[in-house]
């Protein structure tokens, strides 16, 4: 006899509108121009998605100089520094920008503040492609990066009266609130968005993890190790009281011994994880348990982003 277990699926989970659009852009570019189409950086941080697109003819590279000039190139959903499209233009390449519109919005905010004479503080994770892209909207030295509350004490702005802040879109809502409070405390004149620039998908996925945390013995987050929003879901789960919260790329990664004895397990997925991987996890649980599947829904999402016109025209 199999032990009984309830699997609680978080909703919303998985693909957001920006990821959906970015993947469509690669697929439509392959239809329009044929293979190979080059993609600068993983289009979204998910191995399954990248492998599937590679099978269809996408070639993933890290830098533009790895692309030939006679093939189209797509910039990933995380955004690129201004120097990248500028270089593509200089090399007379065809390029399509798959930057999520909510990341582009932050790019514009940074430019607007800078035009108004404000030096920028960005809250985000050093080295993450979105952070490199957003900081790269302005000349070097114009954006000061803070990763933690402690970092706030260490920055030396040119003029504390002329400061503005922006954030990465995939941060922990609670950790970011504490950093914003520390910035406002040290620099009372700092200006910025009403709260932060964390996107709806990140916010909603964190809220659904918090809502299920009290009912589960363990949490599995389907997502990649380089996916910021997915990693934040693990942290949110732990902070909300889940003794065991683990990131898994797919069913094979599940450590079954670690969840032995659990009666209720929560499953969610980062914004770049496709639903097939969630289905795969459910099947793996069904193989081992007498399973009940339930959903904990805390929001509904109906946001869609249009693909760029150059691809809509062919479609
Ligand atoms: C672009 C911007 C934000 O690591 P991160 O969470 O940023 O990226 P992905 O690809 O895991 O998630 C989607 C995404 C794209 N989020
Ligand atoms: Fe965009 Fe947020 Fe998704 S910034 S790509 S909607 S995780």
From TrEMBL:
For the ligand (isopentenyl diphosphate), the binding residues are 45, 78, 128, 227-229, 272
Chain sites annotated for binding dimethylallyl diphosphate: 45, 78, 128, 227-229, 272
Instruction: Quote the record's binding site residues for (2E)-4-hydroxy-3-methylbut-2-enyl diphosphate.
Output: 45, 78, 128, 169, 227-229, 272
A Pfam cross-reference name: LYTB
Specify the domain of life of the species encoding this protein: Bacteria
Q: Which cofactor does it need?
A: [4Fe-4S] cluster
What pathway annotation does it carry? Isoprenoid biosynthesis; dimethylallyl diphosphate biosynthesis; dimethylallyl diphosphate from (2E)-4-hydroxy-3-methylbutenyl diphosphate: step 1/1; Isoprenoid biosynthesis; isopentenyl diphosphate biosynthesis via DXP pathway; isopentenyl diphosphate from 1-deoxy-D-xylulose 5-phosphate: step 6/6
The reaction(s) catalysed by this protein are:
isopentenyl diphosphate + 2 oxidized [2Fe-2S]-[ferredoxin] + H2O = (2E)-4-hydroxy-3-methylbut-2-enyl diphosphate + 2 reduced [2Fe-2S]-[ferredoxin] + 2 H(+); dimethylallyl diphosphate + 2 oxidized [2Fe-2S]-[ferredoxin] + H2O = (2E)-4-hydroxy-3-methylbut-2-enyl diphosphate + 2 reduced [2Fe-2S]-[ferredoxin] + 2 H(+)
Q: What is its EC number?
A: 1.17.7.4
What keywords would UniProt list here? 4Fe-4S, Iron, Iron-sulfur, Isoprene biosynthesis, Metal-binding, Oxidoreductase
InterPro entries in the cross-refs = LytB/IspH
Instruction: Please give the family membership noted in the entry.
Output: Belongs to the IspH family.
Identification of the protein by name: 4-hydroxy-3-methylbut-2-enyl diphosphate reductase
**Species this chain originates from:** Thioclava indica
The gene coding this protein? ispH
């Amino acid at each position: 006899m199999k032990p009984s277990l309830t699997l609680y699926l978080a909703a919303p989970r998985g693909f957001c509108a920006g990821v959906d659009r970015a993947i469509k852009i690669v697929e439509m570019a392959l239809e329009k121009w044929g293979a190979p189409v080059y993609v600068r950086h993983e289009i979204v941080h998910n191995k399954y998605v990248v492998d599937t697109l590679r099978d269809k003819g996408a070639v993933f590279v890290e830098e533009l100089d790895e692309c030939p000039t006679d093939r189209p190139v797509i910039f990933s959903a995380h955004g690129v520094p201004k120097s990248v499209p500028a270089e593509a233009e200089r090399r007379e390449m065809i390029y399509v920008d798959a930057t999520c519109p909510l990341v582009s919005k932050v790019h514009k905010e940074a430019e607007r503040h800078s035009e108004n004479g404000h030096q920028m503080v960005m809250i985000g994770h050093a080295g993450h492609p979105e952070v490199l892209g957003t900081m790269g909207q302005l000349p070097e030295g114009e954006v000061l990066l803070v990763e933690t509350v402690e970092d706030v004490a260490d920055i030396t702005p040119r003029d504390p009266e002329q400061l503005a802040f922006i954030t990465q879109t995939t941060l922990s809502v609670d950790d970011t609130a504490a950093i914003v409070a520390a910035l406002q405390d040290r620099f009372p004149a700092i200006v910025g968005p009403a709260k932060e620039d964390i996107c709806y998908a990140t916010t909603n996925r964190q809220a659904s993890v918090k809502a299920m945390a009290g009912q589960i013995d363990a949490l599995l987050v389907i997502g990649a190790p380089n996916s910021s929003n997915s990693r934040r879901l693990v942290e949110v789960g732990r902070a909300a009281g889940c003794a065991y919260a683990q990131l898994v790329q797919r069913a094979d990664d599940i450590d079954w011994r670690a969840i032995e004895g659990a009666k209720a397990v929560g499953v969610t997925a980062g914004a770049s994880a496709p639903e097939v991987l969630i289905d795969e996890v459910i099947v793996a649980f069904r193989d081992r348990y007498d399973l009940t599947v339930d959903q904990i829904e805390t929001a509904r999402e109906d946001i869609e982003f249009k693909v760029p016109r150059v691809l809509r025209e062919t479609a």
